[in-house]
Amino acid sequence: MGLQIRNETPADAAIISALTTEAFLTAAHSAGTEAAIVDGLRQAGALRLSLVAEDETGLIGHVAASDVAIDGRTGWIGIGPISVRPSRQNQGIGSALMGAVLDRLRAEGAKGVVLVGEPAYYRRFGFASQAGLGVKGIPADYVLAIAFTDEAPAGTITFHEAFGLT
Questions:
Q1: Which residue, 27, 54, 153, 158, is most buried by CB atoms nearer than 10 A?
Q2: C-alpha to C-alpha distance for 140 and 131, rounded to whole angstroms
Q3: For 78-135, what is each residue's pLDDT tens digit?
Q4: Domain extent at residue 124
Q5: How crowded is residue 14: how many other Cβ atoms within 10 Å of its Cβ?
Q6: What is the C-alpha to C-alpha distance for residues 59 and 15, in angstroms, rounded to an integer?
């Protein structure tokens, strides 16, 4: 079968929740709320895109994307959380999910994407910190963006309330 990336289905929700919890269980930067974020986005109908990675063993990865506002401007998408089953990390699954979500969002006409994450990891996909772009309470170095148009993102990012950042 090999690795396949597809849209989540309703039958995937519980598996995604367990996988996300497992993926962030020992992460130093985790507050343990990642699965609740995905569930909250799903329940609110706020998942713009929810992709799963699967192979012959079942679901092994997930990435969520939801609309954000930057100083009230729309058209930007927030990516996260992105999860890979711990036994399958460092095998290119997260990279495949990131490539797929970026391709889909670009094709859908998003202005660009933002996320909060480790700069050393996300730079490989083209993410960079942007002067004047931020999230309240998050160090600026960890607020990253890719613009798909010539409109550079600047201002305060507001993620969906499921993220608990308000």
A1: 153
A2: 9
A3: 998 999 999 999 999 999 999 999 999 999 999 999 999 989 999 999 999 998 999 9
A4: 4-163
A5: 10
A6: 7
Two tokens, residue 2: 């090999």
Question: Residue 94: which of 124, 127, 128, 53 has the closest Cα?
Answer: 53
Q: Which of 64, 70, 57, 56 has its CA nearest to residue 135?
A: 70
- Does residue 82 contact residue 97 with C-beta atoms inside 8 Å? yes
Say if residues 52 and 65 touch (Cβ distance below 8 Å): no
pTM comes to 0.92
What are the residues whose beta carbons fall under 8 Å from the beta carbon of 43, sequence distance 6 or more? none
What confidence tier does 30 reach under pLDDT thresholds 50, 70, 90? low
CATH number of the domain enclosing 14: 3.40.630.30
Contact present, 140 and 114 (Cβ < 8 Å): no
Q: Alpha helices of the chain — where are they, by DSSP H? A: 13-24, 34-43, 93-107, 119-122
Alpha-carbon dihedral angle through residues 164, 45, 125, 52, given to the nearest 10 degrees: 110
Considering its fold, how many domains does the chain have in total? 1
C-alpha span between 77 and 79 (Å, rounded):
6
Residue 28, Cβ neighbours under 10 Å: how many? 4
